[in-house]
Specification:
The protein has about 230 residues and is mostly helical. Helix content is about 65%, strand content about 5%. The chain is built from 4 helices and 2 strands. A two-stranded antiparallel ribbon has the order 1-2. The protein starts with 19 loop residues before the first helix and ends in a 5-residue tail after the last strand.
Length: about 230
């Protein structure tokens, strides 16, 4: 096997400057990679949520069939089955929700990096200002609108939590007529939905810093501020 070695320049005189075309090619390759990773991340998240919905639908259908069959188990046995099934689905749903939050964080990172590449193109490679007002993702990171995949998972988890809680209560005591079950499910699912939204609400900015200075008679003075 023949090998060829090349001496790497070490002195400043031997260093070569990167041309604008080479920098442009590097940026375009990075942008293609980020865009491809962005869409793959979106597709994986949709697949994960679809699987979760499929499992919930299948288990719910089985529970409904079990409850309406002529040879259904006793009330306590059915409540126990519903409680255990809801707990299992709730654990799966909460795991899916955490994965969705990680997916949103990763997606926001891809958007930020692609916007950074666009800004480099605007500042250094766009001599005719063609890209001046081009910003497909918006000028900054904005809050997500209600109704996305994350909110769908939160809604399903809320009803699963309500089903688990109502089934557990029915094991211990008789709730009453059917409308009482429905009312309790609505109340419990609403509380669970609010708690999940509260838990996932992004934390606001709590700290900031800065350096205040002035040029006074040729001498730079700094203002030092300590905590009170």
């Amino acid at each position: 096997v023949s090998m060829t070695t090349r001496q790497i320049p070490t002195s400043n005189d031997d260093k070569t400057e990167i041309s604008s075309n080479e920098a442009k090619e590097l940026l375009l390759k990075d942008y293609d990679y980020l865009a491809d990773s962005f869409w793959k991340n979106e597709q994986m998240s949709e697949t994960r949520v679809n699987w979760f919905i499929t499992i919930v639908t299948a288990v719910s259908g089985g529970l409904v069939t079990l409850a309406t069959t002529e040879h259904d188990p006793k009330d306590q046995s059915l409540s126990l089955i519903i409680s255990v099934s809801s707990l299992f689905l709730l654990a799966l749903g909460f795991t899916t929700l955490l994965r969705m939050m990680k997916r949103n964080e990763t997606t926001d990172g891809y958007k930020t990096d692609m916007n950074a590449i666009r800004e480099i193109f605007k500042e250094h490679l766009d001599n005719k200002d063609i890209l001046r007002n081009y910003s497909p993702f918006g000028p900054g990171r904005r809050s997500r609108k209600f109704g996305g995949l994350r909110d769908i998972v939160i809604g399903i988890n809320s009803f699963l939590f309500a089903g688990f809680l109502v089934a557990g209560i029915s094991l211990l005591t008789t709730i009453g007529p059917k409308w009482a079950y429905l009312l309790l499910i609505i109340i419990c699912s609403s509380i669970a939905f609010a708690l999940q939204i509260r838990f996932l609400k992004p934390k606001g900015i709590t700290h900031a810093g800065g350096i205040i200075y002035r040029n006074h008679n040729g001498i730079v003075e700094y203002l030092l501020i300590g905590p009170k």
